[in-house]
Specification:
Elements (H helix, E strand, L loop, with lengths): L12 H18 L10 E9 L8 H14 L4 E4 L14 E8 L1 H15 L20 E5 L19 E7 L4 H11 L7
Antiparallel strand pairs: 1-3, 1-5, 2-3, 4-5
Length: about 190
């Protein structure tokens, strides 16, 4: 028998902060008796629409490559549900891609987004705090992929934006706002 030990994977930094610091603060702030009522992030969905892929099918490959590098997970390609002649779109044609992140990969992505990517945006003054959907989920968009360190600025063939949806366990926008504020989302001050 060999004496090799296997170490457990390290807990993501943002997840450890959530469990040790943020949960007690939210429990105190909203007076929840049941610990399962405390809001938490369930998943993060990152999607990239490539409308120009209707004319050039190679653009979707670049979007898949960029999204794979940013999230560390292979995206699912979305296809058109019906044909639209004005947009030169046929049913079943690839028009975008998305990734659903859960668990440790989600926490790592949020940590990189909040500490590395958002501060790299030129003239950044915060993200809008009014983009909640009424069910405790927050949605916002980014205009280009170059703010992520995983993307080499010289290899960008086409500038692509992305939409990010942060899905929380609460159905209350006020609690979701408090959760994201504690996590470090840089909301604009009113």
């Amino acid at each position: 028998m060999s004496d090799t030990t296997v170490e457990a994977p390290q807990t993501p930094r943002l997840k450890a902060m959530y469990n040790e610091v943020i949960v007690p603060e939210l429990e105190k702030e909203f007076h929840h008796d049941n610990p399962m009522m405390i809001p938490r992030v369930e998943k993060v969905v990152v999607s990239m629409g490539v409308g120009a892929a209707a004319r050039d099918s190679k653009l979707i490959e670049g979007a898949v490559r960029d999204l794979t590098a940013i999230t560390g997970q292979k995206p699912k390609i979305t296809k058109a549900k019906k044909s639209v002649a004005q947009f030169h779109l046929r049913e079943g044609q690839a028009i975008g891609c998305f990734v659903t992140l859960r668990g440790d990969r989600m926490w790592e992505f949020l940590d990189r987004l909040l500490t590395l990517a958002l501060p790299r945006i030129r003239d950044f003054r915060g993200i809008n705090g009014h983009q909640f959907d009424g069910q405790g989920n927050y949605n916002f968009g980014l205009t280009e992929q170059s703010m992520f360190h995983e993307i080499d600025p010289d290899s960008i063939d086409h500038q692509r934006g992305m939409d990010i949806s942060v899905v929380t366990s609460t159905k209350n926008d006020e609690e979701a706002y408090a959760l994201l504020k504690h996590l470090g989302f840089p909301f604009k001050e009113n």
